[in-house]
From TrEMBL, chain A:
Zn(2+) binds at C73, C76, C90, C93. The keyword Cell membrane does not apply. GO terms for biological process: protein maturation. Gene3D superfamilies: 3.30.2320.80. It comes from the Bacteria. Ni(2+) binds at H2. The gene is hypA. This is Hydrogenase maturation factor HypA. Keywords: Metal-binding, Nickel, Zinc. InterPro entries: HypA/HybF (IPR000688). One of its GO terms (molecular function) is nickel cation binding. Involved in the maturation of [NiFe] hydrogenases. Required for nickel insertion into the metal center of the hydrogenase.
Automatic annotation (TrEMBL), chain B:
GO terms for molecular function: GTP binding; GTPase activity; nickel cation binding; zinc ion binding. InterPro entries: CobW/HypB/UreG_nucleotide-bd, Hyd_mat_HypB, P-loop_NTPase. It holds the Pfam family cobW. It comes from the Bacteria. Keywords: GTP-binding, Hydrolase, Metal-binding, Nickel, Nucleotide-binding, Zinc. Belongs to the SIMIBI class G3E GTPase family. HypB/HupM subfamily. The keyword Phosphoprotein does not apply. This is Hydrogenase isoenzymes nickel incorporation protein HypB. Residues 38-198 form the CobW/HypB/UreG nucleotide-binding domain. GO terms for biological process: protein maturation.
Length: 115, 225
């Protein structure tokens, strides 16, 4: 259940960003996450619901934006999508592609606020 | 009149705080000249037995200065076992937290003179999921799995293999008894992490340990110059 630590860190990040928005109410936190971030969406959703209790984010929702897995393929000499996190092979040529370029992200990328 | 909600773009890494502490640790380790190795694995894969043998060999045979931090949910059994190696060992009890983070490591190092160490080992809580997300400032992360756990560990827990640098297959003395398919295990690692170095070690007989220790020593020289 490291999702609880992550949910708390998301709230910290949101507090820090919201502090710059003079008292705006945060309706939603947009989170970008990759398949290698180690986060399971369902588990994080439940952990977030627990973590937000009793904070200024009691009504705030969490919006997930999934990032695809992309790695550098030496045979194609280009960044390519990867079949899956279990098969780090270039989706184009099938060659091994272990240098992950995108897919580890875990970032708060936007806050939906009013007014 | 009500204003419609607006979307404010930000860019804030969720683990920024942990990453900052980890970066601080990494520069502290580098300055002190200590090479730091962390170990992750599922419960019961033999991390503690492996580490006990490593600590003893490095200390007694090679005359090196070694120490260990060991994370555990509740007990200090692992720390007591490791203390048999006569290396300094400190326990981090995480309570209900299923992984170590950089702040816990930093707190546990309070008062330690890192410049008096050649190697520091950090044994994470036995868990193949949660520790993957947290940088501890280590130079080298090992992921261990034992022959008794089955060959498909890498395919079941790909993320942890992605954050680790080397894979160690443990308890190889039991391989015949459990009909361990080494080739399938290697294929699994190669599938989730092409090119990852794999070592096979028996902490009981010591088989395979020297090969890994040689590689470790080379890694240390490369990092510390």
């Amino acid at each position: 259940m490291h999702e609880l630590s992550i949910a708390l860190a998301i709230l910290d990040a949101a507090s820090e960003e919201a502090a710059r928005l003079d008292g705006a109410r945060v309706l939603a936190i947009h989170l970008r996450f990759g398949p290698l971030s180690g986060v399971v969406e369902e588990a994080l959703r439940s952990a977030f619901e627990l973590a937000r209790e009793g904070t200024p984010f009691g009504e705030t929702s969490l919006v997930f934006e999934a990032v695809p897995l992309v790695a550098f393929c030496p045979s194609c000499d280009a960044e390519r999508p990867v079949a899956s996190i279990r098969h780090l092979r270039c989706a184009e040529c099938g060659g091994p592609a272990s240098h992950v370029v995108r897919g580890r992200e875990l970032e708060v990328v936007a806050l939906e606020v009013e007014p | 009149m009500t204003t419609p909600p607006r979307l404010v773009q930000v860019r804030h890494r969720v683990l920024k705080q942990n990453d900052l502490v980890a970066r601080g640790l990494r520069s502290r380790f580098r300055e002190a000249g200590v090479y730091v190795v962390s170990l992750v694995s599922g419960p019961g894969s033999g991390k503690t037995a492996f580490l006990e043998r490593v600590l003893t060999t490095l200390r007694v045979r090679d005359g090196l200065r070694v120490a260990a931090l060991v994370g555990d949910l509740a007990t200090d059994n692992d720390a007591r076992r490791l203390a048999r190696s006569r290396a300094p060992v400190r326990q981090i009890t995480t309570g209900t937290v299923c992984h170590l983070d950089a702040a816990m490591v930093s707190a546990a190092l309070d008062g330690w003179r890192l410049e008096e160490l050649d190697y520091l080992f950090i044994e994470n809580v036995g868990n193949l999921v949660c520790p993957s997300t947290f940088d501890l400032g280590e130079d080298l992360r090992l992921v261990l799995f034992s022959v008794t756990e089955g060959e498909d560990k890498p395919l079941k827990y790909p993320t942890i293999f992605h954050t680790a640098d080397e894979a160690i297959i443990t308890k190889t003395d039991l391989a015949p008894a459990v009909e361990f398919d080494a080739e399938a295990a290697h294929r699994g690692v190669e599938s989730v992490r092409p090119g990852m170095a794999i070592f096979e070690v028996s902490a009981k007989t010591g088989e395979g340990l020297d090969r890994w220790l040689d590689a470790l020593s080379a890694r240390r020289s490369g990092a510390l110059g």
